[in-house]
């Protein structure tokens, strides 16, 4: 019996079929089938109901997958089993939404890995709903996302930062306020798969701001390029303000007081890598706080220079 085969079995249990598990594990379908066949030989029983199309785990397969998950979690805890060691080691699989704090995550990981050089990070970017699903299935260890829009079983989310929501407009825009900018140009919005797009729509509805929708774009970077070329105006989380400034975009907070969104770290409740995730959380929180302080200092200097 190998740990790799057990991980394959758990993937089949989580995703419902050999084909789906193969896609997640980046293996061929025959390779996944071979892992299951080897486990059946080891335990001398069938683990799949092959009468169904596609084949699915039978009762014995589901029971073994449940035990296999426990074994995998115990194996993961071995990285944290050495007591009184200031250094942290192991592999941490971290997910992040493409809309969230792109100016915080890289320096935070740099600090974390400099402090704990034996730590390895595997990054995955996806939509927040996908990340929560991966987290609940144990495919990733933690995820940096906005506050979930509802209860998620076996997952906890802890806030470590807030970021403003901004209206961005072409450099030649004449409007002075968020509302005048939004009425001046066609509207480019985020895809509805991103939670922040729902929060933005709710805000606009409350203020009864009528827009002229022109296109839907899935990437913040792509939105900024479209806005730079005068194709429209958009509303985005701050994430990385240096990009918008590089393009010379007009930037105005959405609302008075400015609309904010909470950003936090999601993890499984009683997950196997609590020590690693706790270190990551503290580093993210510290990095976000330092970033806020630096921006406040920069604004103060800019204001003093104008006076």
Automatic annotation (TrEMBL):
PROSITE patterns in the cross-refs: HTH_LYSR
GO cellular component: cytosol
Keyword Transcription regulation among UniProt keywords: yes
GO-annotated molecular function: DNA binding; DNA-binding transcription factor activity
Signal peptide: none
InterPro entries (UniProt xref): HTH-type_LysR_regulators, LysR_HTH_N, LysR_subst-bd, WH-like_DNA-bd_sf, WH_DNA-bd_sf
Chain residue ranges for the region called Disordered: 288-307
Keywords: DNA-binding, Transcription, Transcription regulation
Alphabetical list of Gene3D superfamilies matching this protein: Periplasmic binding protein-like II, Winged helix-like DNA-binding domain superfamily/Winged helix DNA-binding domain
Pfam families reported in the protein's UniProt record: HTH_1, LysR_substrate
Entry annotated with the keyword Transcription: yes
Domain (HTH lysR-type) ranges: 1-58
Stated family: Belongs to the LysR transcriptional regulatory family.
UniProt cross-references to PANTHER family, sorted A to Z: HTH-TYPE TRANSCRIPTIONAL REGULATOR YBHD (PTHR30419)
Protein name: HTH lysR-type domain-containing protein
